[in-house]
Specification:
One of its GO terms (cellular component) is Cdc73/Paf1 complex. By secondary structure, the protein is mostly helical. It is 70% helix and 1% strand.
Length: 1351
């Protein structure tokens, strides 16, 4: 089968008869025809791939020496390198894979034809003329939407061929049959079966041929296979022609398309649908006939037919296609920005129109997102649209959208995110183009994962050995290894890329860079210019211009190099800074330093630590000129850049020297450190230190006040210059000699300094500074005439020297020669270069201001002098707005004019600007004095003296004394004046004020009636001193007048002192009498005080003796108590017969007590016998035992049967009761207790000492110390409630029987070894028994209850 050219098919306009049915049939026929056209395209592609497969295979086979046996004439003469052989084999494998895939597509085309054949029978039945069709309301015209016939290789088959035909709706078919439609269906029923058989045979033959060619490397077989694939012998052209005859279309060869007007006429006449217009426009675009393409798409909006289902999508497609063309054209537009803007505006309008039709069509959104991406300033909008496409995509991922997201992330320098999208695209479509892996590799490079990047680029080359981007990337990576092998591999890969794409601008730029370093500048120019011509982006053009510029820069063609550097900066992105470096160098060559600094500043923005740029920029700022303000700013920037450079590279001596020179005026210590570091570096390199550096170090030492060290440096520099000669050396030697003289002068070696200055003048008679310094030395010595001679000699050398005129003017001012001084300063201002000399202006203002304080002045001219002074100060401030002396002068003039508030504001502003200006502090204090704020003035004077170290300044002390005097602090005023006198003993004004203060203080003292004799005597001595001072001042009449002291006033004060001294005896007598009276009064008061003191001492002594007697009495009482208690502790012996006579329940209690008749004598025994009344306690023991027994029984009753204790068990815990002191008893109770000492029962007897012993024991046991009253009470008394309880108990015992008649046995263990709490309870029990008058109640007797009482 011979390959036919592609054709453009335009359906004819439908007739009016049976239009809908015929239209449906024609669409079906066109679909079948498109399938045959698709077969033809695939067959042509298969023939091409078969030719590649066989030719490549035969070439590789014959170069290996393997020849077919039936072709002995063939021989192998070609030699293939291993790389070329591999490349051919890769092509062979790809061709074989393509053939296999094409055969599968051919098989699918046969399946589509079989599907169409199955639909012919029902269609024929529908198209019979006699058939009447019933309408079906459920059918839709969308069920069989065919496409127009097209020869495009990528036209997909329609759904109508893959599914049975649907029932036509009543709106599409009429009730009559269509003879033309019936004829078409009948003919297709006849043509399709043999056509399908032909295609099946042809497909089977192709498969057999491919298998045979793959198995045998035979040249004849290969040629036969190629011919068979090209001609397709089994396909009958007659059947295809018959099928084509059934289709009523206009057929045009795509290579012979008519002009734009003709194609538009055809499309309009045939009422072609919109998709036909789009197909025709695309064909013209492929032939690069862009005008016709745009014309067709622009006309299609109003001329194309839209009466079919789904035309909205075709509308959006047409608008998006035209918009995409405008976007691409605008992106490639380089000449005019207006043209590009116009094209982008058209594209925006088209996309906006498409939005109104179908806004959320995915293909439309993709096109719009790519447009936003190309615009550059709408990256976020593009990102949102790509995200929407990804979210709305039904597949795993939309590949263009993923790649768009990856590009956006890469541009935003989010390389991790870009890598994620590239990986996702690869996972979604593993067989994607190799360029995706190239993008993946670039992400790895940015993430510094070079191994992964290399693997990605190598994989891209495996998939596509001709991928130029991958070759360039691997070439750059190899070159960056900085090894010989790496550079060779990089150049080799660039060469391969150049062979594949000789016009690739990226490859050309990299080759130009390679040849630049090789020095082959001609090749650099050729390659860079070719890259510039073929570049489609501004970044690539910027790089090309840069290569051209530096090639021209190297050969010295600076003008052309400047133009290309400048053009490169216009194209370059902000990250490409190399052209700015070259352009800055060109500006330096042109001496346009401001532009050069701008270029280098642009380099520092993205690369702040670039050392070369820091060094160049620092030097440029250091050498830049301009006005004073700019000069300061430039030098500050120079220091900043050079200091940063030194931090990065600390061993660059050249930069250290420049930095030291820049910091000499701002930071001398740092500058000295830089010079010292330079000396260390030169010493390490065994190089001599230049004398200039040593001289500078000496000058820095001089500025820091280290004069000896400065002299040493100067001498060292002179020693170095001693062995050298030349005019420059001699001039430098004179400079160092002058510096030596300055150091000697500052060391007060005036003779040495004078000699050196004169030596300088002998070697250089025009060295003006030496004249001036000699004049200053003479002035400081007081040799005013000689000083003026030196200054005049300087003016003889240089009449325009403002320094000499200024110094002469200052000499006149020091001598208060105001008029000559005024002339000198006015002469300075008349000289051309000194018309704005602010020093002279301020000096003239001070001269006019000083005239206002002359006592011999003409006061009528004060206002004129004030205005002139204000005029000069104002003029100086205009010339130099930050001159604090001029502002201070203006404040002084205002203060003289009595405008104290305005003057104070000006002084305050000056002090805020600089706090290191003493005059303004003093002036503010003066203003306070004028305003009457004397306390504030005193504080301001004190602050100024403390801040500036002027505590001994006589003038300031005089100001302070005046302020003290105004505040009425005469004592502080006198002390301040005495300090001032010590500081300046010859100052008549201070002496006068001192004398006046002494006189007034003495007068006040003598008038004080309470003043003592000593104070009055001191005041008389002060008066004498003041009189002598006044007399001394009167003796110096002329000097006093010159100092402004009135002779008359001084004489008056002297006479006043004399008058007071004549009256001094009266004041002394009065003070003496007053002192005598005060002494007598003090003596009487002292005597009275002594008498009171003696009485107090006597009373204190009596109290001490009384306390000592009491202590002795207490000691005797204690001894008596101890002696008495010895007899109490002796217990009586209990007779056995008495115990035997007492029967009853004694045995049980004995066993329960566990003790028998034993007595334990420990510290608790004394407590049991404290309140006993007899020596023998038989009855007490009986009562204790009875009470103890009843207490134990009560405790058992409270504890219950389940307490767990038994006989001989552990002792139960008891709460300790706090012992309280015994309250005092009433008279009745005391009577009862006293009688108790004489009560006893039958078994016991005692003496009178028992009661006393109990009372003393109780007293010693109490918390308070014993007193006389404590020994009168024997025991505690119960309360009223306790007495009532006792009475009730007594009545109860009387009814139940007397307890005394029962036998009781004393439990010695209970009574002898009880605890303190037991003793307390026993005391309470004993006290309860004291309430009865009929029955005795011993305090330590325990009553044991019997069984009857318990019941």
């Amino acid at each position: 089968m011979v390959a036919e050219p592609r054709k453009l098919l335009i359906p004819l306009k439908n007739s009016t008869d049976d239009a809908e049915r015929l239209k449906s049939t024609r669409r079906f026929a066109i679909d079948v025809w498109n399938v045959t056209r698709r077969w033809n395209e695939l067959a042509i592609e298969a023939a091409s791939q078969m030719e590649k497969f066989t030719s490549g295979r035969m070439r590789v086979h014959h170069t290996q020496g393997v020849l077919p046996s039936d072709d002995p004439s063939s021989s192998s003469t070609d030699y293939l390198s291993p790389d070329e052989r591999d490349r051919i084999m890769v092509g062979v494998v790809k061709a074989h894979d393509s053939l296999t895939e094409i055969l599968e597509h051919l098989d699918r085309q046969i399946g589509k034809l079989r599907t169409a054949q199955s639909r012919l029978a029902p269609m024929k039945k529908l198209c019979e003329p006699s058939t009447l069709l019933s309408p079906s309301p459920l059918s839709s015209p969308s069920t069989s939407t065919p496409s127009t016939p097209t020869s495009s290789a990528r036209t997909p088959p329609l759904s109508s061929l893959s599914s049975p035909i649907s029932s036509p709706s009543s709106s599409l078919l009429d009730k009559r049959g269509s003879p033309r439609a019936y004829y078409i269906v009948s003919e297709m029923e006849r043509i399709l079966p043999p056509l399908i058989v032909c295609f099946e045979k042809e497909l089977a033959a192709k498969k057999v041929i491919l298998k045979e060619v793959g198995s045998h490397a035979h040249r004849g077989l290969s040629n036969a296979a190629i011919v068979s694939f090209q001609h397709e012998p089994f396909v009958e052209e007659s059947l295809l022609n018959e099928l084509y005859a059934l289709i009523e279309v206009i057929e045009m060869n795509v290579h012979e398309l008519p002009d734009g007007d003709d194609i538009l006429s055809i499309l309009k006449d045939e009422s072609a649908k919109l998709h036909v217009w789009i197909t025709a426009a695309v064909e013209y675009y492929k032939q690069k006939r862009y005008e016709v393409f745009t014309m067709i798409l622009e006309k299609s909006g109003g001329e194309a037919t839209l009466d079919y289902y789904g035309f909205e999508k075709d509308q959006v497609r047409a608008l998006d296609t035209l918009a995409a063309y405008y976007v691409k054209k605008g992106h490639r537009e380089r000449g005019s920005k207006d043209k590009r803007k116009e094209l982008y505006t058209k594209a925006t309008l088209l996309y906006t129109t498409a939005d109104k039709i179908i806004m959320y069509d995915l293909n439309h959104l993709l096109g719009r997102a790519l447009f936003c991406l190309l615009e550059g300033n709408k990256i976020d909008q593009a990102d949102q649209q790509f995200t929407f496409v990804l979210q709305g995509s039904s597949e795993q991922g939309n590949i263009p959208a993923l790649l768009g997201k990856a590009c956006i992330a890469f541009q935003k320098k989010d390389y991790t995110q870009a890598l994620f999208f590239y990986k996702k695209a690869l996972r979604t479509k593993p067989d994607c183009p190799a360029d995706v892996r190239v993008g993946l590799g670039h992400c790895f490079v940015k993430l510094n994962k070079l191994d992964y990047a290399r693997r990605a680029f190598e994989r891209a080359l495996q998939l596509d050995p001709f991928n130029v981007a991958a070759l360039c990337a691997i070439s750059i990576m190899d070159s960056n290894l900085m090894t010989e092998e790496g550079v060779k591999n990089g150049v080799r890969n660039l060469y391969r890329a150049y062979k594949l794409e000789p016009e690739n601008p990226i490859v050309l730029n990299h080759l130009a860079n390679h040849f630049f370093y090789k020095g082959e500048l001609t090749k650099v120019d050729q390659l860079a210019w070719a890259a510039f011509q073929n570049a489609d982006t501004e970044n690539i053009r910027a790089e090309s211009c840069f290569h051209l510029a530096r090639s021209l820069h190297r050969i010295g063609n600076y003008d052309k190099a400047f133009r290309y550097y400048y053009q490169s900066t216009q194209f370059a992105s902000p990250s490409f800074i190399l052209p700015f470096y070259g352009l800055g160098q060109m500006y330096i060559q042109r001496k346009e330093y401001a532009n050069a600094m701008t270029c280098f500043e642009k380099i520092l923005d993205p690369h702040p630590n670039n050392t070369e740029t820091l060094k160049i920029l620092g030097s440029l700022y250091a050498q830049a000129g301009g006005d004073a303000k700019k000069g300061v700013d430039y030098r500050a920037k120079a220091r900043t850049h050079l200091q940063k450079y030194v931090e990065l590279i600390p061993d660059d001596a050249e930069v250290l020297i420049e930095l030291a020179q820049l910091t000499e005026s701002t930071d001398p210590i740092k500058s000295m450190q830089y010079y010292e570091k330079v000396c260390d570096l030169l010493a390490k390199e065994e190089m001599d230190v230049p004398p200039e550096i040593i001289n500078n170090m000496g000058s820095l030492s001089l500025a820091q006040g280290d004069y000896e060290k400065a002299r040493d440096y100067y001498q060292k520099a002179m020693d170095i210059l001693a062995s050298e000669s030349g005019d420059d050396i001699e001039a430098f030697r004179v400079t160092i000699m002058y510096n030596q003289a300055r150091a000697a002068e500052l060391l007060c070696l005036f003779d040495t300094a004078e000699a050196l200055y004169k030596d300088v003048l002998r070697k250089d008679g025009h060295y003006i500074d030496s004249f001036l310094r000699l004049g200053c030395i003479a002035r400081d010595r007081g040799q005013i005439y000689e000083s003026s001679v030196w200054f005049k000699e300087c003016m003889g050398v240089n009449q325009s020297s403002s320094d000499s005129w200024t110094l002469i003017g200052m000499l006149h001012m020091n001598k208060q020669e105001w008029q000559p001084a005024q002339k000198k300063f006015e002469h300075i201002l008349k000289m051309q270069p000194n018309k704005e000399d602010t020093y002279s202006m301020i000096a003239l203002g001070n001269i006019w201001l000083e005239t206002l304080f002359n006592p011999n002045r003409n006061k009528e001219k004060d206002k004129s002098h004030q205005d002139r002074a204000l005029q000069w100060f104002t003029k100086a401030l205009k010339c130099q707005p930050k001159n604090m002396w001029a502002a201070n002068g203006i404040g002084c003039v205002l203060a003289v004019k009595k405008q104290t508030q305005e003057a104070r504001e000006i002084f305050s502003q000056v002090r805020e600007a600089t706090a290191e200006f003493l005059d303004v502090w003093i002036n503010i204090a003066h203003v306070y004095m004028e305003q009457g704020q004397y306390v504030a003035a005193v504080q301001m004077y004190l602050n100024a003296m403390k801040k500036f170290g002027k505590e001994k300044d006589p003038q300031l002390l005089l100001y302070l004394a005046r302020a003290y005097h105004r505040t009425g602090k005469i004592v502080e005023c006198r002390e301040t004046l005495e300090k001032a006198t010590l500081a300046d003993p010859e100052n008549l004004v201070i002496k006068f004020n001192h004398a006046l203060t002494l006189q007034r203080q003495a007068t006040m003292t003598m008038k004080d009636e309470k003043a003592t004799y000593q104070v009055v005597d001191g005041a008389i001595q002060d008066l004498k001193t003041a009189q002598r001072i006044f007399e001394y001042i009167m003796s110096l009449r002329e000097e006093a007048r010159a100092s402004g002291i009135s002779f008359t006033f001084t004489e008056t004060q002297c006479k006043a002192c004399a008058d007071l001294l004549r009256q001094a005896q009266i004041y002394l007598e009065r003070a003496r009498a007053q002192d005598a009276e005060e002494q007598a009064l003090k003596a009487r008061q002292e005597e009275e005080r002594m008498q009171i003191k003696r009485r107090q001492e006597e009373e204190e002594r009596e109290k001490m003796e009384s306390r000592q007697r009491q202590v002795e009495d207490l000691k005797q009482t204690r001894q008596l108590y101890i002696q008495m208690t010895k007899d109490i502790l002796k217990l009586p012996e209990v007779k056995d017969e008495d115990r035997k006579s007492r029967g009853g329940g004694g045995r049980g209690r004995k066993s329960k007590g566990g003790g028998g008749d034993e007595f334990m004598n420990d510290s608790s025994d004394l407590g049991d016998w404290e309140k006993g009344e007899g020596g023998e306690g038989g009855e007490k023991r009986e009562r204790k035992k009875k009470e103890g027994g009843s207490r134990k029984r009560r405790e058992r009753d409270r504890g219950g049967a389940g307490s767990g204790s038994d006989e001989g068990g552990g002792e139960k815990k008891r709460k300790k009761k706090k012992r309280e002191p015994s309250p005092k008893l009433s008279a009745k109770q005391n009577a009862k207790i006293k009688s108790r000492a004489f009560i006893s029962d039958d078994d016991s007897s005692g003496d009178d000492k028992g009661a006393v012993g109990d009372e003393r024991a109780t007293q010693l046991r109490s918390d308070s110390p014993p007193t006389a009253s404590a020994f009168n009470d024997s025991s505690s008394s119960p309360t009223d409630s306790e007495e009532e309880e006792k009475m009730e108990r007594k009545k109860k015992n009387g009814k139940g029987g007397k307890s005394t008649g029962r036998r009781v046995k004393m439990d010695s263990d209970q009574s002898g070894s009880g605890s303190d709490s037991d003793r307390g309870r026993k005391q309470k029990s004993a006290s309860e028994n004291e309430g009865s008058d009929d029955e005795p109640a011993p305090t330590r007797r325990v009553r044991m209850s019997t069984s009857e009482e318990s019941d």
